[in-house]
Amino acid sequence: MKELATCRSRWRCKKNMQWYNIEIFTPDFSYRSSNQTTETEVDIDYLAISNSKVVLPDIRASEGDYIRISGHGSRHIGIVTGCTDSDKGYEIQFKPMLALLDVDVHMTQDGLKTSLEQWLADIMNATYRDSDDEKQNITGFEATAGSQTQDAILDFDGNIGNIYQMASMAFLRYGVVVDFDIDLKQKRLQAMVEKVTAERKVIESDMLNILSATFVIKQADQTVNKMVIYNDADESQTATFYLLGDGTISEDVNAEGRLSPVVFSTEYVTYEEPEKPKEDAKTFHDIAYERAYSRMSLPEYNNLIEIEVMNDDGLVQPQKLQIGQQATIIRNNTAYQTMLTGKKVSDTTILVFGAVRLELTKKLKRRITS
Predict the structure, then answer these.
(1) Confidence at residue 253, expressed as pLDDT on a 0 to 100 scale
(2) pLDDT at 100 over 60
(3) Which neighbouring-strand residues pair with 350?
């Protein structure tokens, strides 16, 4: 019955073709070319920077150009990574704008506690707008904070970090998303950093409008539940932390709710006592706790749920769903709490929920601890 429903739906999808506008712009926002198509292959995955492609006649692009795909309430912005001209048409390969963040830069925690969003925006602006190297700066780049998340804790190992890694942790832990757009009139490449506020979406996967549904419910990685941390600069300073069943962290070895079996880790952090410590300066204990919190926080969205629907499905409305939007997926009267983390758009739309990834290539690309 499910196969029959899928077959009928795919036929309807082909019958009700949807047109998408494909526009190509140079990095200085000059128009290069455009066309329309009913066929796209866009892989949007916030947890893995994926390649996408589109094949069209009579269109041209160059590596480094911006591509904008729009239509039917959806909008995708990307960076052209390659082009292939053949008898089948002109193929444009591209990555999402998130690829810009996959760079290692110097960063400190200054301002992180005040506003996670502004902290990320400041790092991006320092990298691509205010760099002393003019060739590194991106024409018209501007990152803006649209919300304010206070007292955030991200995993730091020194002052060199990957912006995409930080953004990914902000996404999984606090629901903060970096979304890009192009303003042609103002000649700006805009990055908005803000918390997703869309209301939770409920999807019943057993309904006939669902073409296919895949559920993988498991641990993304084995979770450490005990950490011993030493100060690399003074090994006489040490602290031990234990993860409890309610997700809190304790220093009491006999705390009620300790998890078993014990999965432990021993690590260094570096802390040197300043000669004249500031009133709000961090102590070794503060740094050790932040490391333990980052490593032992219970992973959320430990599932991989893929829901396939028609692009114009009136019930699910896939084009309106936002990356980072909370969702409840119901299957066989069981409700799974999750979050939209990706979309695969072609002749149908596959909505990807959860933090688990099965593809080896995507596992290798992910450098985050959820």
Answers:
(1) 94
(2) yes
(3) 308, 344
**Among 46, 91, 35, CA closest to 68:** 35
65 burial via Cβ count (<10 Å: 0-12, 13-18, 19+): buried
> Which tokens sit at 265?
């880790």
The confidence score (pLDDT) of residue 299 equals 58
Q: How far is CA 202 from CA 101, 131, 153, 208, 321, in A?
A: 32, 44, 30, 15, 11
**What sign does the CA torsion over 196, 47, 29, 31 have?**
negative
Nearest to 248 by CA among 307, 277, 289: 289
Cβ atoms 74, 319 nearer than 8 A: yes
Q: Is omega for the bond preceding 261 within 30 degrees of 0, making it cis?
A: yes
Residue 317 structure tokens? 């409305």
CA distance 96 to 50: 7
How far apart (Å, rounded) are the C-alpha atoms in residues 50 and 97?
A: 11
Q: How many helices (H) and strands (E) does the chain have?
A: 5, 22
Q: Which long-range contacts (CB under 8 A, 24 or more apart) does 234-238 make?
A: 234/271, 234/284, 237/271, 237/284
* pTM to 2 decimal places: 0.78
Please provide residue 173's backbone torsions phi and psi, each rounded to the nearest 5 degrees.
-85, -35
Q: Give the 3-state secondary structure of residue 174.
A: helix
Q: Is 345 within 8 Å of 44 (Cβ atoms)?
A: yes
Contacts of 21 (CB under 8 A, 6+ apart): 34, 36, 68, 69, 70, 71
Report pLDDT for 298: 57
- DSSP readout, 33-95? EEEEES--BEEEETTS---EEEEESS----TT-EEEEEETTEEEEEEEEEEEEETTEEEEEEE
Looking at 11-15, 93-97, 172-176, 242-246, which range is the least confident one? Answer: 11-15
Residue with tokens 């048409």: 89
Give the model's pLDDT for residue 17: 62
Q: Kindly report which listed range (13-27, 54-68, 343-357) carries the lowest average pLDDT score.
A: 13-27
The DSSP call for residue 98 is G
Token code pair at residue 180: 């890009």
